[in-house]
């Protein structure tokens, strides 16, 4: 994406999250352009089927957080303008639920139109 932006083929209008992204210069946040309800941030994570034993979930969470500390992962994320954030499984579940609610509100309010 950054290559397209740097080449002038793509113009970012806003970024999600509560702060601007250094790599995108003066691109405002959605809140700054009048859409404070759109506060979703991109995330990478692992999910497991309902009923997965808690000890397995804890091991997956620990492995994911450890991977986020690995130099190649940090370099890749930093190259994309991403600041990795390590969270607990409960925090991640809350993030997913909040994303679903936020997207539902945007669709219900007509701010986003989904067509087949």
Descriptive notes:
There is one protein chain. The protein has 116 residues and is mainly alpha-helical. It folds into 2 domains: 1-39, no CATH class; 42-109, no CATH class. It has helices at residues 2-6, 54-68, 71-79, 89-108. The longest helix has 20 residues, at 89-108. The model has no long low-confidence stretch (mean pLDDT 85).
Write the layout of secondary structure elements.
Layout: H1 2-6, H2 54-68, H3 71-79, H4 89-108
Summarize the structure.
The protein is mostly helical and 116 residues long. The protein is 42% helix and 0% strand. The chain has helices at 2-6, 54-68, 71-79, 89-108.
Features of the shown structure:
116 residues; mainly alpha; 2 domains; 0% strand; globular
Q: Which structural category do the helix and sheet elements fall into? A: mainly alpha
Give the helix level as a range of percent.
40-55%
Mean pLDDT: 85
Approximately how much beta-strand content do the residues carry? under 5%
DSSP summary, beta strand count: 0
Number of H- or I-type helical stretches = 4
Q: So what's the oligomer here?
A: single chain
Q: How far apart, in Å, are the first and last alpha carbons?
A: 25 Å
Q: How can the largest sheet be summarized?
A: none
Query: What sort of overall outline do the alpha carbons produce when their principal axes are compared?
Result: globular
- Rg result: 17 Å
Low-confidence stretches: none
Q: Number of domains in the coordinates?
A: 2
| Order of secondary-structure elements | HHHH
């Amino acid at each position: 994406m950054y290559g397209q932006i740097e080449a002038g083929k793509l113009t970012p209008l806003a970024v999600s999250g509560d702060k601007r992204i250094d790599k995108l210069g003066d691109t405002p946040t959605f809140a700054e352009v009048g859409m404070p309800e759109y506060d979703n941030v991109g995330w990478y994570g692992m999910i497991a089927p309902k009923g997965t034993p808690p000890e397995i979930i804890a091991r997956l969470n620990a492995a994911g957080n450890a991977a986020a500390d690995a130099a190649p992962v940090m370099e890749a994320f930093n190259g994309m303008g991403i600041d990795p954030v390590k969270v607990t499984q409960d925090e991640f579940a809350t993030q997913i639920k909040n994303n679903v609610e936020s997207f539902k509100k945007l669709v219900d309010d007509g701010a986003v139109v989904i067509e087949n």
